[in-house]
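Support reply, case 0932

Customer input (verbatim):
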Amino acid sequence: MKHLRAIVRITLQEMASKANMKRFAQVRQMADPDVQRYIAFLDNAKTQRELSGKSYPTDHIEGLRDRTETFDGETLLSVLFDMKHERDAEISREMKQRERAAIDARKAERQTKKDALTAKIQRGFNNPVLKAALDKIGDGFHMKLKERYVGHRTSEVKGYFTDGVFNLKDPGYMDTSREGRAARNHYHEVRAALWMFFQKKEGYSDKNEYLIPTWEAVIDREGQRYADDIVNSWKNKMSLKLGEVIDSKGGADIGLNGELWSEYMTFTFADGSSFNMRTSQVWSRSKLGKEFCRFPTTFHNVKFSDGTFMQVPSASKMQADFGISDSQG
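Our regenerated output:
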């Protein structure tokens, strides 16, 4: 029935539009100079703002309400009003089309940049020795990241659930003191942080207070995803950076040395330059107290293409000879 009503509505709208187009054509053929000036005003309008204010036909044609001409049963006043509304709707459609075209152009530009970046990253991964080295170092980072996540989340669950029941009491809204607001904020922040571990039980209140039985599996799964995201982001960054250096130098011999979590990579380039690169895992905290992981990169035993060695760390020299800036580390 709804589908039928929609078909009827669309059919009626199309019939009304065809009737209006016929009336508009008849009015456009009138020899009245005032009517022609108003039609020209509508045709020349480019924005909806131009059709606001004194833009109605009665503002431009004196005595319009007293005129008796009809067009398929509609008065001249009514037809001119319809012409204004149609022009207003047409400008609106044109504006939306321009906005949509601009959005599509921005999306296409972003996609082009993304594709170009992906291609550069993949060029680095196409070097099997570089990829194997990044994978091995990344595996060590992944292990520590996941262990840290699982340990932190397990501690939270064990701290806020007793015998499978959430043990933090809802402070409610009665206490409007600073301490009351702080307790209420803390309660809701904890519930929001642990939302994936709550379950409902039949016959109990609607509020989730019970721990899901599979909480350990959930933590393991989320820990895997958490570590994957961070390590993959690091691998992409290093592949992009090192791949560009290798390309600009005409190739390189790559080695991986050291023990687990203390590996470093050695690069000997075709032009005679070389360096050792070490990446470490560092935890920092933002001004707002949010903890995040960084992977600072340092370069050692740097030999330039002219055969000299870097005695003192110099970002400008690394940029000049290898195209590596300190912002990339």
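We compared this against your earlier run and they match. Two observations from our side: Residues 132-328 form one domain. The chain has two domains: 2-98, 132-328. Please reopen the case if you see a mismatch on your end.
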